[in-house]
Amino acid sequence: GIGIREVLLTSGCPTTEAKCIVRVEECRGPVDCGWGIPISEGLACVKMPCIYIPPENRFKYVWKMLIPNKTAHILPSDSAIMEACRDTHSVTFQCETEENGNIIASVKYTVYATTEMQTKKSRRIETGQSRITKTDAILVFCLVTGIIVTIGVIFTMIFMILHW
Fold first, then answer.
1. 8: Cβ–Cβ under 8 A, 6 or more apart, which residues?
2. Which of 111, 117, 116 is nearest to 38 (CA)?
3. How far apart are CA 45 and CA 91, in angstroms?
4. All structural domains of the chain
5. Strand order, beta sheet including 60-66
6. Which pLDDT value is given to residue 1?
7. Of the candidates 65, 72, 95, which has an alpha carbon nearest to the alpha carbon of residue 2?
C-alpha cells in the first residue's frame, strides 16, 4: 500500500497519556494501513482524507460505512476527502484507494457521536482547568517574587544614594 501510519502505544506512555506515538512508518505490503486521523474535527462534523499521493486524480476512492455484523454500505462519495456530520451513535468509515482496479491502500475512521464528543470536550476542559490553575499559581509566585526582589533592589539603591 501507499501512505504512512502511526504506531501507537496504549500503555507505558510517559506522564498520564493514554496513547503515545511510538513511530511513524511507511505502509508497505498489506493495503490496510489501519486507523487515520481526521484533517479537521469539530463538534458537528469531521473531514477525513483517503490515503493518496499526488496527483490526487490518478486514484479512485471508494468510501464505505462499516456496520457491525452486516455488509459494508458503499457511499456515493468518490473524492479523496469526505466530510461526515456526527449522528446520535458512532459510525466507522473506511476509504479504499484504488489504482487500475486494484486496492492499494485502505484507512478507517471512527466518527464519534455528538454526545461522546461533548463528554470528551467537558473532560478536556476539566483537565485543562486544573492545569491552568497550577500554571497560574506558578506564574503568580514568580511575579510576586520578582516584584519583591525589584522593590528590594530599589530600596537598596536609594539607601546607598542617601548615605553616599
1. 19, 20, 21, 22
2. 111
3. 12
4. 1-30 (no CATH), 31-137 (2.60.40)
5. 32-35, 102-111, 91-99, 60-66, 73-74
6. 45
7. 95
